[in-house]
Amino acid sequence: MKRPLYLLALLLPLLSLPAHAGFRCGQKLVNEGDRITEVLRKCGQPASRDLLGYTDTINGNLGLQIEEWSYGPNNGMYYYLTFEGGRLRTIETKRGQ
Q: Pick from 82, 77, 72, 69: which is nearest to 96 by CA?
């Protein structure tokens, strides 16, 4: 009877991990925090690349550029990568219709 509780205690911390920490491009893995050049090297050119805008200005200087790249469909999934200042900030996935 203690065994199921022990396994639950081991698996419970995994539930708090981020759902989209990485994105697989063939055999290579892209992670949040990677540079744009790393993502291009691993995944190639995206299907689309959109400039979303800039972060708030700081001391009158233009903020960091925000871009969204999309890849897919790959097995019916689309992947949306958001870059801020040349670094990958978020990875979102959506099932295609």
A: 77
Is 39 domain-assigned?
A: yes
Confidence at residue 75, expressed as pLDDT on a 0 to 100 scale: 86
Residue 35: give its domain's CATH number.
Answer: 3.30.1450
The secondary structure of residue 64, as a DSSP letter, is -
DSSP SS3 for 59: coil
Cis bond leading into 73, ω under 30°?
yes
Amino acid letter at 96?
A: G
Average pLDDT across each block of 10 residues of the chain; the chain has 97 residues. List them in order.
56 47 87 96 96 84 91 91 96 88
Both tokens of 3, joined, read 């065994």
